[in-house]
Amino acid sequence: MTWSFTKMQGLGNDFVVVSRSALPEDAPERARALCDRHFGVGADGLVFVLPSEKADVAMRIFNPDGTEAEQCGNAVRCVARYFFERISGEKRELTVETRAGLQRVGLEVSKGRVVAVCVDMGRPILKGREIPTAIDRERVVEEPLEVDGARFRFTAVSMGNPHAVVRVEDAPSFPVEKWGPRLETHPLFPRKTNVEFITVRSPREIDMRVWERGVGQTLACGSGACAAVVAAALAGKAEREATVHLLGGDLHIRWDEKSDHVFMTGPAEFVFEGKWPGPE
Ligand SMILES: N[C@H](CCC[C@H](N)C(=O)O)C(=O)O
């Protein structure tokens, strides 16, 4: 059966977006086929825009390897824009249901078009428990990890999906392709993990490269940028509000002290419309 889809991207983190009344059973196989950059359309994820009973719209996202991610910051921004411009342009404040919970989204609109999207990404979770007000830094921040003779320090931050944030000397030149997969599949992370390599340039500027679970290196990762600011702030290296420079562009992240929620602001763009005939 032919599928109509919309290609979207947020800072070069690109998605095949399809609107459906229910999640198809073969979503994982479809994700593997559609996301393939040589035999399919090519994308970092297959995103379903679905009706929701609890929110304005629901989103489910599958990685190119067919696994499902609980969360995807860049895709939430794309889904919010898709919903506003294609489904219902009534509200500039939306809620999006994800597997990580309900997310509140604010749209900046100019001439009927969404020019920026701010997402409340919720509370970061360290080691599977919510961060208490007084943080036990020694225990949860920059833990040592050894892999293939190399030593790293990582801070595990969940934004609904797992992240391991690693500070390195120079993120732009770091061999992400070499170490990303080894950390992604390290036995310390039973569900595997997304891995962010960061360099704090100044308390409000962070360079980041990312190796995503089930994907590989991508140009940007919204939940990863949130995790990076949380980890850098916990380590006392950055402020709670910072710009994260990614290969695909910049994200603005603010970890609100009062609510403990992380807010992410960035773009979401349409690329093209297509039809996919499906596998033979
Ligand atoms: N790129 C996404 C995250 C996808 C994470 C996915 N690869 C996982 O398995 O958790 C973002 O902008 O937040």
UniProtKB/TrEMBL annotation:
The cellular location(s) given in this protein's UniProt record come to: Cytoplasm
Chief location: cytoplasm
Query: Which residues does the Swiss-Prot or TrEMBL record annotate as the active site?
Result: 72, 72 (proton donor), 221 (proton acceptor)
A molecular-function term among this protein's GO annotations: diaminopimelate epimerase activity
Q: Which InterPro entries match?
A: DAP_epimerase_AS, DAP_epimerase_DapF
Q: What is its EC number?
A: 5.1.1.7
Tell me a GO biological process for this protein.
lysine biosynthetic process via diaminopimelate
Q: Which UniProt keywords apply?
A: Amino-acid biosynthesis, Cytoplasm, Isomerase, Lysine biosynthesis
Catalysed reactions, as listed in the record: (2S,6S)-2,6-diaminopimelate = meso-2,6-diaminopimelate
UniProt binding sites for substrate: 13, 63, 73-74, 161, 194, 212-213, 222-223
Recorded hits in NCBIfam families, A to Z, give:
DapF (TIGR00652)
Q: How does it assemble?
A: Homodimer.
What does this protein do, in the record's words?
A: Catalyzes the stereoinversion of LL-2,6-diaminopimelate (L,L-DAP) to meso-diaminopimelate (meso-DAP), a precursor of L-lysine and an essential component of the bacterial peptidoglycan.
Q: What is this protein called?
A: Diaminopimelate epimerase
Q: Which gene encodes it?
A: dapF
